[in-house]
Amino acid sequence: xxxxTVSVGGKLHADARVVDGDAASPFLVxxxxxxxxxxxxxxxxxxxxxxxxxxxxxxxxGWVEADxxxxxxxxxxxxxSPFGLESLRSSTDLRFAERALATALSPRRxxxxxxxxxxxxxxxxxxxxxxxPDGASEDREPSxxxxxxxxxxxxxxxxxxxxxxxxxxxxRGTSEVPALADYETSADHAFLAxxxxxxxxxxxQRVGPQATLARGRLQADAEWTWARHRVRGPDGPAxxxxxxxxxxxxxxxxGTPRGRKRPLPSRPAPDGGIGAVEVSARVHxxxxxxxxAPLATAGSARRALAWALAAHWTPIVPVRLGATVERTTxxxxxxxxxxxxxxxxxxxxxxxx
Amino acid sequence: xxxxTVSVGGKLHADARVVDGDAASPFLVxxxxxxxxxxxxxxxxxxxxxxxxxxxxxxxxGWVEADxxxxxxxxxxxxxSPFGLESLRSSTDLRFAERALATALSPRRxxxxxxxxxxxxxxxxxxxxxxxPDGASEDREPSxxxxxxxxxxxxxxxxxxxxxxxxxxxxRGTSEVPALADYETSADHAFLAxxxxxxxxxxxQRVGPQATLARGRLQADAEWTWARHRVRGPDGPAxxxxxxxxxxxxxxxxGTPRGRKRPLPSRPAPDGGIGAVEVSARVHxxxxxxxxAPLATAGSARRALAWALAAHWTPIVPVRLGATVERTTxxxxxxxxxxxxxxxxxxxxxxxx
Amino acid sequence: xxxxTVSVGGKLHADARVVDGDAASPFLVxxxxxxxxxxxxxxxxxxxxxxxxxxxxxxxxGWVEADxxxxxxxxxxxxxSPFGLESLRSSTDLRFAERALATALSPRRxxxxxxxxxxxxxxxxxxxxxxxPDGASEDREPSxxxxxxxxxxxxxxxxxxxxxxxxxxxxRGTSEVPALADYETSADHAFLAxxxxxxxxxxxQRVGPQATLARGRLQADAEWTWARHRVRGPDGPAxxxxxxxxxxxxxxxxGTPRGRKRPLPSRPAPDGGIGAVEVSARVHxxxxxxxxAPLATAGSARRALAWALAAHWTPIVPVRLGATVERTTxxxxxxxxxxxxxxxxxxxxxxxx
Lengths: 353, 353, 353
What we know:
Three copies of one chain form a homotrimer. Chain A is mainly beta.
């Protein structure tokens, strides 16, 4: 029958950040979002998620979905492009303040249509999207090319998942809208940016193998992303191949592990428990194509390598407090000095309902 | 007594568009809106409707209302200007992907005060507004002039409604804010645009006779809009008279007709029914004042004529799937070539609660 | 235990304004806001308040809070800086259409962390914020300096409150983001603005003594704000000391007085009562440092002095109708003519749930 189920949620992430050599705006409302999900007849769904953060209002997700035969679902609207492992994870479940550098090469939130399957041992998705630059979320794109994005994540053995994401499309920028992304650290420092006048100018491919391991109190993730872009600079076109990766592991010291989701308290703090405590470590990196050198702004880095340590405490279900320390070092392009390393401390109070 | 009733709703329109010769951004979240209506003591009402769409967040409606004697209601805030027949119709009830060209000359959402009556056989409204350019919605306007807008729609015979809308006011633009609208096709192609430096400069009148016919499975609508603007270009002031019109008809093949509102399924698809199916056709046109020629950008059209065919399917109450094909042809200004015709296909998945 | 309480509210303020010599945009949706407050285990709280008004969407409040020992609360995110008496009052409780000139020197909504206590006879708060210019609300600030803000309001005798607010920090602007505010009348007219190129350039202090008196049907408020800024103009740095103040009193003619909160009807109008009626009067002023003269735009005022009369009617709890008349006169800087006085009428229909 036509039973209508409405669920309402929201999240608030309030941050304090200290970054060596640049402590502008130490306090930040990183995310303030509401979300409504509606399901009709257990078969039609719609999601509406507006959000505010860092001074902007935007539609994070707005899609409608219908169940077809055999568990296949067809979705249309704005939602996360089915590509990056960490990109697809809910922000409140992240083990660090910000996503790793592998996400900087992944498409994020895009507008399109997608057929997908969500089964206990298999996630598969195939979609057609407007296409977005590396690490970007967009509502409209300037050019006429579409992107095909596909992803499979299978769990052959309980607790082990292995997957592959592929994306292929094209993008053509203009001098006003270059359709090329800068690459940034967790503290929003652009370590690689393109000179004015360099624009996207053709084919774009991305490949992203990924794996996760959930064993008892341990959760480990690994992903590697490779992206090739045709760009055009003052000296003509160039095909740039960048890559980025991360390896991360978390251990739940107290509380109930839930794999990729954040652990929850076995006994909440107000009831005399100590809540859920988790510690995490990761290494991640980014390597630009050496041919990027003449197209990049002065002071840009050819490579970034970062490590981070983090601890999170969930005293009671909707609350999560976290601290992350991250250090990123850089190599300059050939003949250039290495950009200065960055050390950052992130403290976050999160609330999710 | 002071009984408080709160009703909450929302709508999501996810589109795919193919336009010949320009397929930029084929996927689009056309509308993502939430709405709250509050009524107190069956006499005071307030509505709050924020929306997201095409990358922007805006307040679509925000008004307060009180019932005076004799069914008269007094409203203040932002709401739809009581003018165009199709402009006043809810977007989920539209029979085509986008409103017809008659709406391009109508005021849309404006800020002001309005006294109005909503009776079974009579709708009447008289309002004072900031005033907006043709087809536009605004929160503030730059100039000091107000617009008076009035509309009556009467139903002398069951199923037949005849009405007239009138608007008079003034607008004065500046080179930064010309306060003049471009005129666009359903696919957002501006077929008539003003040269830089041409600005609104005085009186503005609009007249809009309109009629609807609802007979069994048939719903037909007709409206004609005439607008006169005083504008100022490099050669001095000019009074431009534009007109636009539409004639549209829909037939409900399956389901329960509801007149101007979309038909609903007699038996929803999940219960073995086929839901509500409706097919529609329309012709609409726009004719600019020939004196617009020296003020319009190169390639602008003097006339646009469009026809569209559409089919909509409502498998279950909150869902509506539609496809619209529309072809628009153009006449150039005297001595100019005719702009190229446009053919567009719109597919929409809509969800409204 | 982990009981979750969710409360939802909202407010709509629809205005009509007539200002002599400038009646642009007479109608205005001044505020359209929704708000969600969540409390978990009577100890953790989160608030999310997005708003729309005057064409912008923004996050007004987004914070998370935890109760520590002894009634002390720790809050992080975006919220009102604990400074000005009228600044901290809810907009629907205001006795006039807009806040007085004392608020023009106070920080408004800022991002940071705050420890605070709310007891019947004592409010105390100490916070660390990004810092905002005079009268401003911001999500991010350009410079690296933080502001410390502290406030105590004590009620030694029932109905009498005396308080003091202090803020100290620094701000450094750039030619793009000067980080200096213009000072405006209630009708948004900037009576004192800085020349291009004048920027904030160092220490900033604010002091704000304040007092309220609630005695039977009378509510009176007084506050005085002093602010010192280091700024830099073409001739080098300068330390500017501005001050602003207000004295206001309201009398509840009908209904139940609630002190700083708006009075409510003893018997609502729909039940045959006359609702709550309140009349108010205030005097307020602003005096700029005479050394501002070479840094201010032509036509700026050195002093502003304003009086206002207002009447508010609450026929039923969620509704409030108000009218305010305000006249502001100005003194020019030495050797300059006095700017023209401004008279404004504000009519507001407010709805708050």
